[in-house]
Write the structure tokens for this entry.
Amino acid sequence: MLVDNFSFSDAREYWKYAPSGLGKISTESLLSRNDEDFLNIITNHYNSRASHYWEDVHLVKYFQNLFKGKKVLSFGSGIGHNEILFLEAGCYLTCADIVQSNLDVISRVAELKHLNTLSTLFMEDSSETNFKGPYDYIYARGSLHHMPFSLQKKTMENFVSALSDNGKIILNLYSSKFYEATTPSGDPKEFAKVTDPSVNGLNNPWSEYYDDQKMLELCGDNLHIVNKQVWNNDYYIWWGLEKGKKITEEKVNTEFMDIFNAELKSLEIIGTLQNNDFELTGGNYVENEYVLTDISNYGYVMVSDTPILQEVGNCVLNVIETDISLVQGSVSIGILDIAKDTFIQSFQVLTSGRAFHYLPVACNLDDIRLVISNFSPDKENQSHFKINNISLCQKK
């Protein structure tokens, strides 16, 4: 089927290079490895992903607990990082994908780990697929938005047919904030190049964003929104949908869980950074330790003046907790690997108010610095902010 110059055959060629945690990986190539290498690659790629997305770790653990003993359909399961965890938690899982080698990877991991509650479903065209069911949960992480909206609507109708009366659909989708910040042309094919890298001369065929209004349109008369949780700099949104008529707007923003509190409980503070631990390179202190930056696009404003120690006594630094108040403009906060002159982690504070964030730290780097930069992609601008607290932490 060809819709808006999109075809599932083109998508199939691209998505056989599955997102893995360390870039794209050919699942056909992965299947050629011996069992030991195969499992080591899977594990290393998952650990890399988990180290980059601290919010993701807590949310996936939440879904693990939710899915115990339940029948679950995972739509667009890819390499199966989350799905193996769900199987280990004891759910009855059906993985559906448009790439057979992706499904073969998940099946092989499940077999090697002696997980026997998995079934798979190959899809030629998800908009024409009968998912059977009924399922207690339908889980579509970063997959539904990679086709035109008309095909998403048809796929959602198929989800509804396969969902139990008291079931829930859980979607992870790109936000309008991500789209607006990166794709001024408004072209889904251009947005697709932003969301996923090209590989072997192939481009991601399609990416769409979601906001509340577009989600309500996707739900139609068959579903309503019960959960909405933004994460990863508000560029991604988890949605929870249940059968029935639309409900009032105040229900839309009910989060699945308090991920900040969950992260806080998992951390032990082993040190702090104060203003005097930074070199002010692109601005001036004004009232009450607030900083007014120079006018720039991406100029460095504050750089920690000595390497951040990764070992303090018997403790190992693996998370930096930041607490910033933004008055105007926008700033980026990142961990800079001095040797490679590359940011290994960063996030942006784009709206005024107080912002908390956790930056995972890769260990065994000789010299890392925390850098706060002005962030104004469209035109030179000035930002006004204050560091409330920066804590150096290790996971308990």
The two ends are 51 Å apart (CA to CA).
